[in-house]
C-alpha cells in the first residue's frame, strides 16, 4: 500500500491557517474538524509549516494562557518533513517514527495534495495485514 491509497480513502481535504492567526483560532479549527494538526500556508498558498496539538501543548507549557494569543508562526513546526503519493506505508511508518512527526504533508510535483496522519497510516497498515492474512488463509485452505 502507498500514500496514494490512503488519500483515495480519506480524501485530500487540507485544513490550513495563515501564519498570523492565533493559536486559539488554530485550536478552534482543529477541534471543529476533529484533527490533530493544521497546515500553515502563506497568502500565496505555499506551505510554511505544520501546527499540531503537541505544538499547542508545548506553547501553553512555556507561556501559560498567553500562548493562545501567540501567532501560529511562533509555535508551528517550520519546514516539516513531507512524503509523496508513491511512498510505501512501511517507509512512511519508519519516517514518522524517526522524525517524531505524526502528520506529514503529501507533495506531488511540488504541489501540496493532502496530509496523512499516523492514525491514517496505522489504519491502512492494519487493513493491509488483514488482507495478507486472508489471502494466506484462503491459500492454505485450497492446498489442504
List the helices and strands and how they pair.
Blueprint: H1 3-10, E1 16-17, H2 23-33, E2 37-41, E3 47-52, H3 53-63, H4 72-75, E4 77-78, H5 89-99, E5 103-108, E6 111-117, H6 118-143
Parallel strand pairs: 1-2
Antiparallel strand pairs: 2-3, 3-4, 5-6
Shape: elongated
Give the C-alpha Rg.
18 Å
Briefly note the structural class of the backbone: alpha+beta
Major beta sheet summary: 4 strands, mixed
Reported CATH architecture:
Roll
Report the end-to-end length measured between terminal Cα atoms: 29 Å
Mean pLDDT: 91
What fold name stands as the CATH topology? Answer: CBS-domain
- Unreliable segments (pLDDT under 50, ≥5 consecutive)? none
Strand content: 15-25%
Count of separate DSSP helical elements: 6
The percent range for helix content is 40-55%
Q: What is the top-level CATH class?
A: Alpha Beta
Q: Output the CATH homologous superfamily.
A: CBS-domain
Keyword list:
49% helix, two-stranded antiparallel sheet, CBS-domain, alpha+beta, 144 residues
Kindly describe this structure.
- There is one protein chain.
- The chain has 144 residues and is of the alpha+beta class.
- The chain has a single domain (3-143), classed as CBS-domain.
- The protein is 49% helix and 19% strand.
- A hairpin with a 2-residue loop joins strand 5 and strand 6 (111-117).
- The radius of gyration is 18 Å and the shape is elongated.
- It starts with a helix and ends with a helix.
- The model has no long low-confidence stretch (mean pLDDT 91).
Please outline what is shown here.
The chain is of the alpha+beta class and 144 residues long. 49% of the residues lie in helices and 19% in strands. It starts with a helix and ends with a helix.
Amino acid at each position: 500500500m502507498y500514500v496514494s491509497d490512503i488519500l483515495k480513502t480519506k480524501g485530500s481535504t487540507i485544513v490550513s491557517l495563515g501564519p498570523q492567526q492565533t493559536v486559539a483560532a488554530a485550536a478552534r479549527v482543529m477541534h471543529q474538524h476533529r484533527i490533530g494538526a493544521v497546515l500553515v500556508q502563506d497568502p500565496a498558498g505555499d506551505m510554511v509549516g505544520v501546527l499540531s496539538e503537541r505544538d499547542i501543548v508545548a506553547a501553553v507549557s512555556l507561556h501559560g494562557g498567553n500562548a493562545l494569543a501567540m501567532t501560529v508562526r511562533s509555535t508551528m513546526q517550520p519546514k516539516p518533513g513531507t512524503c509523496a503519493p508513491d511512498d510505501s506505508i512501511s517507509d512512511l511508518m519508519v519516517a514518522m517514527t524517526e522524525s517524531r512527526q505524526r502528520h506529514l504533508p503529501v507533495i506531488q510535483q511540488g504541489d501540496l495534495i493532502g496530509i496523512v496522519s499516523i492514525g491514517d497510516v496505522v489504519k491502512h497498515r492494519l487493513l493491509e495485514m488483514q488482507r495478507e492474512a486472508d489471502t494466506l488463509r484462503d491459500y492454505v485452505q485450497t492446498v489442504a
